[in-house]
Backbone:
């Protein structure tokens, strides 16, 4: 379990194709604090550390993860948001993030508002039932609050600290991002489906299948 509070920005040093998918080598100051078998969120995707040194860690990315996330589009030099799992004795910030990406979106724009920024991200229609105004969403592993919500786009406000301490410092229109919706909302929607309600029908104004 993660919180969406990014600890460090790492750099992809190498992406090597292997029979099981892709093996990544990531340079990060966290490397010396990790051991093989540890979990690590990389741009919001929970991966397992397979090897480490004082400067970098290795992690394997399987075919399914490559299909449903943006990790397969990373190259040497790409910056990635990193977070270790939440400790049971830690204070809890952000929101509950599993590291299980629900889909990918596209950055539509990043525009200044004083010293902060508005980030606009488009998302697939399949995620619409799980996103609400003022709700939480993880974008590339960053816990953010939905400030404005349209049919297929959302806006979040990015403060200067977040820009400076995540890979959003290099974000531009057209970049793909990993999206994970609030875990609580997903359970609510699933319970409604089992009770006979259809999220699609509700959006259309009908509450029964």
Residues:
């Amino acid at each position: 379990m993660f919180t969406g509070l990014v600890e460090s920005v790492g750099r992809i040093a190498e992406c090597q194709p292997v029979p099981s998918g892709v093996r990544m080598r990531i340079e990060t100051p966290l490397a010396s604090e990790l051991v093989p078998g540890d979990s690590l969120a990389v741009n919001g995707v929970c991966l397992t550390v397979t090897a480490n040194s004082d400067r970098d860690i290795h992690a394997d990315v399987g075919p399914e993860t490559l299909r449903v996330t943006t990790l397969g589009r990373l190259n040497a030099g790409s910056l990635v948001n990193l977070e270790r799992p939440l400790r049971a004795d830690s204070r809890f910030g952000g929101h509950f993030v599993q590291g299980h990406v629900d889909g990918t979106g596209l950055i539509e724009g990043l525009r200044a508002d004083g010293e902060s920024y508005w980030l606009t991200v488009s998302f697939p229609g399949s995620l619409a039932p799980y996103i609400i105004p003022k709700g939480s969403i993880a974008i590339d592993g960053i816990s953010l609050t939905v400030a404005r919500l349209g049919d297929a786009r959302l806006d979040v406000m990015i403060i200067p600290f977040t820009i400076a301490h995540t890979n959003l410092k290099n974000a531009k229109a057209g970049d793909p991002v990993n999206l994970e919706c609030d875990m609580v909302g997903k359970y609510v929607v699933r319970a409604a489906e089992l009770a006979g309600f259809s999220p699609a029908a509700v959006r259309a104004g009908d509450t029964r299948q």
